[in-house]
Structures are given as structure tokens and as C-alpha cells.
Amino acid sequence: MVTGVCPWRGRQRHQPAAAGARRALPAELAGGAPPNDENPRADGTNREALGRSRGGLSTKIHLAADRRCRPVTRILSPGQHGDCPRFIPLMGQVRILRRGKGRPVIPVKEDQKDHRRARGRRGGRPPAFDAGHYRQRNTVERCFSKLRQFRAVAARYDKRELIYQGTLDVASIRIWLRDPVS
Q: Which one of 57, 82, 123, 140 is CB 3.0 to 4.6 Å from 116, fit for a cystine?
């Protein structure tokens, strides 16, 4: 299982002012309306997973993907929130049943580790190097690339978090249908 985070910034509006555009607002109106968030969530998170940054509104998708670059589970958060606090809840959502007892783990022999350390830089591959694991380092990025193929996911046209989660679910289902479990 591989996890990753990708910030999405949809509908960015940074265009130069056109000729004859309106002038700046007076100071009392420049701040805009106060936030209308009278009923915040009990867990203290943003209600619609929209974060404010210099680039505009953004949303982060915290995603766990399998080895075939298919989304397994995900959590949405505002774009300015950190990645580490979402890792444990994300891993808590993953449930994978094993068909048997699991895979046997064959450890590297201690004398081989000592020999490689003694040779230093000329000692070949590091003792903890796993070529299969190294090959799968970009699995989550490839999963995000598959999700970006859906315009509604990449640009986040949806105002409400629940509707956007549904859009992500539909995109994930289409990805799973293209590459089913065999």
C-alpha cells in the first residue's frame, strides 16, 4: 500500500485587469463579508475542504493506492493543512484481507550486511535496498495522474465537499473498472 498527497488548485483567477476595469474598493468594503460558519464540525475541520492560499482556493487529496495505481481510500482536507496529521486516519481506513497466511519475509543474512558495510562505498547495493519497493515509488503519482484525466476532479467544479467526494468516487470506480482485480 502506498500513500501520497496531491494539492488541487481549481478555478484560479489571476488575470490582469482589463482596460476600464473597476477601481479598488473603499477600505471598509475591501475585507468582504465575514465568514458564515455558525455551525462548525465537531472535529474542528473545515466544512467544505476548501483552503485559502495565495494561489486561491485549494483542496488536498490524501490518497492510498494499490500496486496497480488504483485508489483504495482517500481523505479530503483544506489545501493549507499539513499531510502528517492525515496519515494515521488514512491508514485506519484501509482494510485488506489476505487469502492465506501472508508472504514470507526472508531477511538478509547478517554476514552479508557486515561484508557490505566493510566494503563501504564499493560494497554494492545498500543492505536495506529493495529493488521491487524502489520500482513502486511513484505509484501514488501515477494514480493521481489517472484521477486528473477527469476534468471535474482536476478542477473541482463542485462547491460542496460531499458532492466532490462523489465525483472522486465515480472517477475511482471508472479507474477500477478499466483495470479489474484478476
A: 123
Residue 147's pLDDT is 92
Can you give the three-state secondary structure of the chain, one letter per residue?
CEEEEEEECCCCCCCCCCCCCCCCCCHHHHCCCCCCCCCCCCCCCCCCCCEEECCEEEEEEEEEECCCCCEEEEEEEECCCCCHHHHHHHHHCCCCCCCCCCCCCCCCCHHHHHHHHHHHHHCCCCCCCCHHHHHCCCHHHHHHHHHHCCHHHHHCCCCCHHHHHHHHHHHHHHHHHHCCCC
CA-CA distance, 118 to 120, in Å (whole number)? 5
Sole residue written with cell 476595469: 21
Residue 128 vs residues 61, 88, 139: alpha-carbon distances, Å: 30, 25, 20
Q: So what's the pLDDT on residue 172?
A: 93
Residues of the chain with pLDDT under 70: 1-47, 102-105, 123-129, 182
Q: What pLDDT, on the 0 to 100 scale, is given for residue 170?
A: 94
Q: Which of 135, 152, 144, 139 is nearest to 175 (CA)?
A: 144
Neighbours of 113 (CB within 10 A): 15
Q: For residue 49, what are the CA distances in angstroms to 61, 95, 137, 148?
A: 10, 24, 27, 18
